[in-house]
Amino acid sequence: NEYILEVENVKKYFPIKKGVFSKQVRAVKAVDDVSFQMRKGETLGIVGESGCGKSTMARLIIRLLEATDGVIKLEGKDLTTLSKEEMRSTRRDIQMVFQDPYASLNPRWTVERTLLEPMRVYNIGTRSERKERVIDLLNKVGLDSSYAKRHPHEFSGGQRQRIGIARALVLNPKLIIADEPVSALDISVQAQVINLMQDLQEQYNLTYMFITHDLSVCEHISDRVAVMYLGKIVELAKKDQLFSNPLHPYTLALISAAPEVNSPVKKERIVLKGDVPSPAKPPKGCAFHTRCPSCMDICKVEAPTLNEKEPGQFVACHLYQ
Ligand code: SF4
Ligand code: MG
Fold it and tell me: Coiled-coil ranges per the record (predicted)?
């Protein structure tokens, strides 16, 4: 199997009541028919504004949430049909790096304990082998053994995120999902953490799903990029294609509004009308039509599907169908 991860027609609908006294139930389509694949060693950037479904996607893959529909395969094995017991052994293969390392680290645990715990839970190695691995991991993420006995509050944000990354690496996962891993850090520290992630990827052939709202971070780290809008992928392409020749009007608007991003299409800033509509009430037809500068009549009634326009570049837009 050439893919590490295959996501096929995945949906996550959250039911909501129409009103306090209403029995009618409506659904928030947080993830709506999303499909993509990932190869070993690549970084897939997932970019979009808050509420576009990118974090929900991550939670579906690690099964913190159950998908309403669709298939999620890790090395060909469908995760959505695994029992709790089977999922327990698979869970170690997918690790997350979170936005706020402080919230995701136990404040009462030393760094050593934080890194030992996953190995203890999965019964890996002897006590002394585990301790050796902790020191090795600390070195890998640019910290040293003197950090082992210290607690999270003694560290800077960047150091805490290095520990979050070390923890994600402990069990040699097949896939690492990083959900806004540098958004809470100062700009200068962001670059250090991203460079660290890239170095580690090169050394250990790691596979990253990198979720961000920041297009320049996305450009820096990704091999391919998926752009999400209201629960759907609207464009999916190799990084160079996406930034040199964006096809979807939303991608174009995002690039035009990102000052650090290099792209030949950036002539003037495209300002979109209004805000992202509520995912509980997405517009009919193309969900982007209420804000799209290129909206046509068909866009208001018919939803476009994601099609391959150029080799490796997929877009969901009637301009190309
Ligand atoms: Fe704009 Fe229509 Fe394309 Fe949607 S389908 S992005 S409304 S042109
Ligand atoms: Mg999020």
Answer: none
